[in-house]
Amino acid sequence: MGNVVSGAIVTTLFLLVTMVVFFFLLSSFTNRSLDASAASARQGARVHSAIQFNSTAQANAGVCDVYSVVVENTGDILMDDFSEMDLIVEYTDTGDTAVIERLAHATDWSVSSISPDTRGPSEWKPGEIATVNFTLSPTAKDGTSGLVTMATYLGISDSSYFSCAIS
Q1: What contacts 128, CB < 8 A, 6 or more positions away?
Q2: How far apart are the C-alpha atoms of 159 and 157, rounded to whole Å?
Q3: What average pLDDT values come out for the chain (167 residues) when binned by 10 residues?
Q4: Nearest-CA neighbor of 57 among 157, 149, 160?
Q5: In what order do the strands lie in the sheet with 129-135?
Q6: Residue by residue, what is the 3-state secondary structure of 8-41?
Q7: Which residues of 32-48 are buried (b: 16+ CB within 10 A; e: fewer)?
Q8: DSSP 55
Q9: pTM confidence score
Q10: Integer angstrom CA distances of residue 152 from 29, 85, 109, 165
């Protein structure tokens, strides 16, 4: 009789452990599948995303600290979170020091306008052009050029040169 009871307990424990392991593996597989689906969707969005710099301009002819760039959303994806984008500048400052800096959104750079913005303010839709203003600190050296790079949250980027010419 003792062997039957102990056999039943061992069998019950085996089935219980098997069930717990099965549910753990099922949960793990489900999480991996969801992660793979999200990665696939992000890659699909990345493939259809593109930006292109159209122009850069110095805002004030007397000092080289504020610039504006015109960037077009040439892809098929709507961009709506500018705080997740990066703006990186590389230039020479007035002390002949090479500066490479990631500018902070809303502090060092911002989107001043999007056109034609017929609906959905603050959404950068395909075909629309955004004007981005950025501030350099320290200021760029007169007679030099710099590079500005914008990268979206999907990892798509474009670069353009800007120049400092004090008149």
Answers
A1: 72, 73, 114, 115, 116, 117
A2: 7
A3: 79 92 92 89 82 96 95 93 95 97 96 87 90 96 97 93 92
A4: 160
A5: 51-58, 66-73, 129-135, 109-115
A6: HHHHHHHHHHHHHHHHHHHHHHHHHHHHHHHHHH
A7: eeeeeeeeeeeeebbee
A8: E
A9: 0.77
A10: 31, 5, 14, 29
